[in-house]
Amino acid sequence: MTFVVAEQCIKCKHTDCVEVCPVDCFYEGPNMLVIHPDECIDCALCEPECPVDAIFSEDELPEAETVFLELNAELAEIWPNITEMKDSPADATEWENVPDKLQHLER
Ligand code: SF4
Ligand code: F3S
């Protein structure tokens, strides 16, 4: 099992999650983070840290967001590791709870 970063992270990217991960398994793209599924130890520490509730346990991932299981696995192999929190994008709050953000994912 793994935890998964899902759609709400796109363009919000608050990065609180990386501060608590004991195995540093977050990877950073231009406008979202992902979790490496082979490195995550299912500790659940990151889930409550996300201000926009973008992190789910694999078995609680909403049906509409199952694509993010594959996307996390794929992009974690490409993007660089991130271990320290950084400032959120200036317009992060404007993108909270905006639907259909997958179209805005930058690779
Ligand atoms: Fe890291 Fe634990 Fe979150 Fe997995 S569940 S990404 S190990 S903090
Ligand atoms: Fe994204 Fe939430 Fe982490 S917005 S960067 S999953 S704190």
UniProtKB/TrEMBL annotation:
Cofactor: [3Fe-4S] cluster; [4Fe-4S] cluster
Domain 4Fe-4S ferredoxin-type: 1-30, 31-60
Record key words, sorted: 3Fe-4S, 4Fe-4S, Electron transport, Iron, Iron-sulfur, Metal-binding, Repeat, Transport
SUPFAM superfamilies tied to this protein: 4Fe-4S ferredoxins
Pfam family, one: Fer4
PANTHER family to which the protein is assigned, alphabetical: FERREDOXIN (PTHR42859:SF2), OXIDOREDUCTASE (PTHR42859)
Protein function: Ferredoxins are iron-sulfur proteins that transfer electrons in a wide variety of metabolic reactions.
Protein name: Ferredoxin
